[in-house]
Amino acid sequence: MRVLWLITALCGCALLTNLDSLVGDASTSPAPECADGAALCDDFSEPIDASFFPPWTARHLYGNGELARTLVGSTPCLSSVASEGGSAFLEKDFTTTTTRIHYAFDLQIVRYPTINGAASVNGMQIPITPPVSSVRLFSVVLQVQSGATALVLAEHFVDGSASGGMSLPFTPPSEGDWTHIDVVVDVAMGLFSVAINGGPPTSMSTPLTVPAFAPTVFAGINFMGPALDQVDVCVTNTTVWLE
To answer: Do the Cβ atoms of 150 and 170 come closer than 8 Å?
Structure first.
């Protein structure tokens, strides 16, 4: 079943202050970040033909989507390529509950779509059990396009509808540059934030403070519009802390 967070790729979102000053020169290969205490860590350095299991729970390929371990220069990474509505991503389901999740990863945009529009990359789902104010989960996703890149949070309701989303924008990385991204969601405090290349985080309040949750995390391209020609990204050092 296709995950519900794809709705964020279609939203009209209110923007905060741009994070231009936080984006540095990240063109060099990233350093591994498999830190102690992490609930998930994958730098994709296993042999190229190795399985994704463990540590991942599932692999999803839809339409024109391709997923593989590969090398960018000397850096091992997860290559995700999609076109014309396709998607290709990994899923990790956690069973441990938490109120704060920290998801860090290194991202390289190998190719932006040449047609104006956004693709959704990486991200997470935060289920709310029981629902609070008819909200049954939050989704958090990175929207990638050459003109406006942002971290977006949306609410999904029990009736199947979803909110337009809230957005934390940052300068789109140049093709071929590595960018380190830290995403934190704290449901006890009602906050989510994004930090770029080790800079200070920019945060926004969520609509609700909710109980502890068991999250699902994704790596790769989970959604792109059917009109988009192709998006090509590489992800490495995917690390999750449940704090």
So the answer is: yes
